[in-house]
Amino acid sequence: MGAVDERLAELGLVLPPVAAPAGSYLPALRSGSLVFTAGQLPFVDGRLPSTGKVGEGHGLVAPADAQALAATCVLNGLAAAATVLDSLDDVVRVVKVTGFVASDPGFSGQPGVVNGASELLAEIFGEAGRHARSAVGVAVLPLDSPVEVELVLEVR
Amino acid sequence: MGAVDERLAELGLVLPPVAAPAGSYLPALRSGSLVFTAGQLPFVDGRLPSTGKVGEGHGLVAPADAQALAATCVLNGLAAAATVLDSLDDVVRVVKVTGFVASDPGFSGQPGVVNGASELLAEIFGEAGRHARSAVGVAVLPLDSPVEVELVLEVR
Amino acid sequence: MGAVDERLAELGLVLPPVAAPAGSYLPALRSGSLVFTAGQLPFVDGRLPSTGKVGEGHGLVAPADAQALAATCVLNGLAAAATVLDSLDDVVRVVKVTGFVASDPGFSGQPGVVNGASELLAEIFGEAGRHARSAVGVAVLPLDSPVEVELVLEVR
Fold it and tell me: What's the whole-number mean pLDDT along residues C33-58?
């Protein structure tokens, strides 16, 4: 059991099975020392726990819920990355996180939502989990997912 | 004639002239072993075959049409990449595709649209054409284009 | 004083202090020969000069104003990059610019807005400032910022 797997266990987390891509692409790919994951949706056991736009108000996905979904995206992204690595212990550092948040036009709290991804990466990888990041509010995401997160990792 | 050009001919495709950038930037650029293309619009002979948002319903661009436009973006992207390569035979593999779909808020079929890009890359490059991918639904794209696709390629 | 700093001074520009990240991430990070900046908002002295969606019409941020904000994002991005470099003179070239424009659905002039970023990079770095670029119109950006720009730089 690798150090990252142990750390996940300490956090009460288990790497999920790799989510089937929603189209004709790979879950992750290595080029040189970088691993690029596909944009990850917050699938749990093959389904999205919730759908819709994030915002404050009736019929919207609450920001705190979306933050938890962003963390789920990270777990799926690490599972994807693991398919092209011997072990997640080969991750030298997290380089870049891009978080897309399907947003009600009046909602501008995307950074808080994407913190769900960023903070989990820091919990798992420590200092090596800190990364550059963009958070963006988009009109709508695949399958009406509230969030989508892609990762770029530096690996050995 | 290179192998990729022959494959394009087999598919009945011709690499178009490079679309003039819509702003102050380069169609593509090489850094180390990676080529980054600019975001490609589905120009054909200098104009967009259609404009507007993708979705189901009157006044919207039909998803099947948008899928074909995403394939056109790929051709334009390969033409852009060719400007910084001796030949497209120098492409080792497609690394990353990002597909932006100008989406009606009720449309969540972005993966199907961006499959138009992914499937053409697989047809042209075979296994080397398979890639990590993000598909995102955005509010509006430059010149009211229904789709925009950017490519990252690994080259020799 | 480095050559880039001198060039900035000639242009009447000063590198601002690094904007505090709006979440749990780093302003910029180096991996190999690439520097990735976080998505930059157009902060000036810790606040956004304007907020809202870009477009033509009452209550919208005028495209010309948004273009100036995109240039401010670049200054903040260079300040972020400088935190992981000895000097901005270590920038070999600008590789990739991604410009997100919070857009009124009827506004499709994103390339003109993001030219504010691209043209400033060319003014500062000359030929080495020319880059591949994507411009995208999104629903809403963090803190209701009208624009967000991220940079990928090749460094020595």
Answer: 97
Complex ipTM value: 0.95
- Reference B134, options A38, A18, A141; nearest CA is A38
Q: Nearest Cα to C154, choosing from C37, C70, C41?
A: C37
**Chain centre distance of CA B95:** 13
Please state the domain count of chain A: 1
Q: What integer pLDDT is reported at residue A20 of this predicted model?
A: 79
Check pLDDT > 80 for residue A22.
no
Cα gap C98→C134, rounded to integer Å: 5
Using one digit for the tens of pLDDT, what is the confidence trace for B97-120?
A: 999 999 999 999 999 999 999 999
Establish if A139 touches chain C: CB-CB under 8 angstroms: yes
Q: Is the pLDDT of residue C42 over 80?
A: yes
Cβ B38–C134 below 8 Å, yes or no?
yes
Which chain A residue is nearest to residue B137, measuring alpha carbons?
Answer: A140
Q: What one-letter code names the amino acid at B85?
A: L
pTM recorded for the entire structure = 0.97
Contacts for C58 with CB less than 8 Å, ≥ 6 apart: none
Distance of CA B1 to the CA centre of its chain: 23
Domain with A34, as residue range(s), is: 3-16+25-44+51-155
Is C107 in the A-facing interface, judged by CB distances under 8 Å?
no
State the CATH number of the domain containing residue A96: 3.30.1330.40
- Please give the order of strands across the beta sheet that includes B28-31: B28-31, B34-37, B147-155, B91-102, B132-138
